Amino acid sequence: MKKTAVFPGSFDPFTRGHEDIVLRGLTLFDEIIIAIGHNSKKTNRYFEIEVMVELIEQTFSNHDNIKVVVYNELTADLARKHNANYLLRGLRNTTDFEYENSIAQVNKYLYEHLESVFLITSPELAAISSSIIREVHRYGGNVDDFIPYKLPK
User: Fold this and answer.
1) Active site residue 92
2) What is the pLDDT of residues 52-79, one digit of tens each?
């Protein structure tokens, strides 16, 4: 049976840390679906979803087993629709663990065949977060070292 994992997030923006988790996840899974969700706690995105989809697709253009989808539903329902029995998540610190643990428990309740798999962020990427990158970019700083693509001008 094919092992498919969903890697969900708002990815605003998609970072080198996210890229690292996806590439390392390919050693565990046959297919990874990068799922850009609408976070109800975030009212406005900094980067348009359509732009981020295109940039992520370009980043992984050499990988037929990675696809990008946009969704506006429960992550467990999305996983079920794609016959994915795994959620892939990265953990930078204990704060991430506490948050992700709660979400994993609810997702397991909603879809009993769904297992959450956590990868610890590579040490050199642990300080990277989308919110920090947004702030640096917003005020004109160079974010090239933190993202795996070139942002459109």
Assistant:
1) yes
2) 999 999 999 999 999 999 999 999 999 9
Helices (H), ranges, 60-127:
75-81, 94-110
pTM exceeds 0.85 for this model: yes
**Is 80 among the residues known to form the active site?**
no
Residue 41 annotated in active site: no
Residue 4's alpha-carbon distances to 66, 81, 88, 114, 117, in angstroms, are: 10, 11, 10, 11, 12
Annotated catalytic residue, options 2, 3, 38, 42: 42
Give the per-residue pLDDT at 62.
Answer: 97
77 Cβ contact partners less than 8 Å away, ≥ 6 residues apart: 110, 111
Exactly one of 10, 16, 89, 130 is catalytic; which is it? 130
Residue 42: predicted pLDDT:
64
Catalytic residue among 10, 16, 18, 89: 18
For 17-76, the three-class secondary structure string (H helix, E strand, C coil) is: HHHHHHHHHCCCCCEEEEEEECCCCCCCCCCCHHHHHHHHHHHCCCCCCEEEEEECCCHH
What was the pLDDT predicted at 40?
A: 66
Asked about 24 being catalytic, the answer comes back as no
